[in-house]
Amino acid sequence: MRIDFEARTLSCSVGDLVHENTYRRIGVERGDGFRRMWLGTEIHTQRAETRSAEDPNYRPEVGVDYRCAVGEWAVTITGRIDGLSIDRERRRITIEEVKSIHFDLELAALYRSEKMQRHLFQLMLYAWFLSLKPDYEGFEFLPQLVLIDLITGTVKAIDAPFEPEDIAGAFQREISRLVEEIENDRALKMAKRAYAEGITFPHELMRPFQQEMVDAVARAVGQRETLLVSAPTGIGKTAAAIFPALVESLRRGKKLFFLTSKTLQQEMAVKVLETLNDGSFRVLRIRAKQKMCAHTEMICHEDFCPFASNYSEKMQRSGLVSRMSTDLSYFDPDIVFEMARSEEVCPFEVSLELIEQADVIVCDYNYIFDPYVGLKRYQKDDDYSDSVLIIDEAHNLVDRGRGYYSPEIEERALDLVAEHLSMRPQFDVDEWEELVRELRSQLHELAQPLEGTTRQSVCEPDRRFFLRQRNEWERVVLQYITWKISNRLADETDPVIDFYFRLMKFTNLMNEEGEEFSQIIEATPGGLKLKIFCKDPSRFLGEIISGSYATIAMSATLEPFDFYRKTLGFPSDRVSELSLPSPFPRENRKIVVISNVDTTYKERGLHYDTIARTLGEVANANTGNYLALFPSYAFLQEVSARMPYVEKRLMIQRSDMTDYERRSFLTALKDGHDQHLILAVSGGMYAEGVDYQGDMLRGVFVVGPALPAVSFEQELLKRYYDDQYGAGFEYAYLIPGMTRVIQSAGRVIRSEKDVGFIALLCKRFTNASYTRYFPADWYVDSPRELVSKNPGKEIQAFLEARNQPQLRIRY
User: What is the pLDDT of residues 402-412, one digit of tens each?
Assistant: First the structure.
């Protein structure tokens, strides 16, 4: 829908008139889930081919439009007729609206549903628009709603009587309703624009360099630009981005999305928004689906979950969204959960319904950038022009983006499908066994180059084979779902459904062509694995960033800008950059390089004891909490096993920690009852996005540059970046590794009043290839001045001196 308030013009689709905001049925096995499947597209194609062969006048996918005036508005409505046959000799026009559904599951309910009336109204509008054209005056119109079964292909054609006067009246009511909604929405936006003029920065004084960032963000949003901001820890990036972006978004009637890679970053954003909001705008925080499930088992289907059952009817009856929008300005996930549960409706679905009501949405990257998780109900046709995006800790989006476009198929999944279906002999659809055999055979054929110690190889899968597999599996899965529902069988995790969606993602992505993709076959302990490896997601991320009204990407480690412009796909014609210095007084910070250890993969085993001893000596000689960050869990475990006795509580991060355990570390630091030494991994939750306020942290040890481990995929990445930019090692290894180092170091630099040290352990930190990525404010003349011959004593002397209150620098 396109609206120009100045010119008073409105362009919309027939769907905008026909499909009001209605609540959907829950579960991929129901309702619109089938239309997302490929069989629906195939059925439409087959219908067009059949009808064209039967009727020489038949044409599929015919565009139609209608223009009218509604008050002061000039309105244009467009649509696309599924099938049109114009018989000029008999002066007869047949119009088809084709819908593919699952007859066994949906047909009976469709006949008595509101959705049936919407389908018929859409069909009648097409007929009425044509009837108003002079060329067709006096023609007989025969509208037909054509229903086709997804399983059997059975066709049911429903003839609909064409009553032009009734349709004209219904059209006038709907177009008037739509214009009224637009004008009401405009009035609300004008009120929010007025409120925006009065929003002030949430703190009495700005931190050093915050004003520069506020001005740059305001300018970027105001001028519809994209902005890369590299700002060290301590500037207050969250407030400096949200405040101006919120003001400019409210002025322009845009939704503001604050996107994060970690939950703790969302909490910080919500705190800033709370200080700005007096109830005049609405904030929504979207929590992960698993954490919003109110049922005992996470089975998202109306036949098995009471919170999904009759969801649409219960939502209509309860008026829940309207009540929440009236009563709340912050849709807190806990409150949404309880209010939804009280009405016995799905809390996660309710949170998605609230997107339309919210002015600011705080959520994970996934909801915008993941092609299968993204908020498609809000963003139509991938149009983000009504959205302002703030991407927090944006350096993380590069790897996330690769993951979104790197689907895989495992032979182990075929084993689970075969095992699952073999235990259900009542499901007598034999095709699945042959499909499993064919796919397994294809994997083994692709794996022929693997022999001896060669575990991975680039391969070329047969695209046509996978297209056929996807379509055949879709038929099997639809029959399987029918059988499950008929037999009231519920599975919290279903290997058949899970495998189908993996196959669908894999096959869909095979349609994408480009040097940024490699297909890899790998031999794993669990069997063969076929993967599409996306080396460069910039094309896909860039489409969203370029399509947004404005995008702000910020991080303490967003330099070199050239790297992130390219890897995130920022548009070259509307991007600006801002690099800010650290507000942290040099006098309050000690940075040392400990060069007598070597953390390279080949040599690190010789230095585990030295690293453990160094950590213990510094921890025992000084008061306060300390954080040591390692390149991997394996490295961390080797050093932790060699740690000497320390006069602090030793806390060690594990890869399998629960949310409660992860948060307990931070709680312990905040309580201040004991002193702690935490051993954790670079790039993890304790190394990025955590605000260690006040005396929570006195020092950080960064053990090694944290380069990505050498692997088959990483080497493919290196070769790709060599070919593209002549910078393979830098782009694949060095920049990501040094980004983690700087992020880790930033944990101790939180405000201009903090005191702390940063110790970098590895001789590579004296190499110019690495030190060129050190922030300029880390040293005066040269990075060489950071190298310490006696780091323990230097750190001890620094901390003892700064423990004297009169020497603390304050503002």
Answer: 999 999 999 99
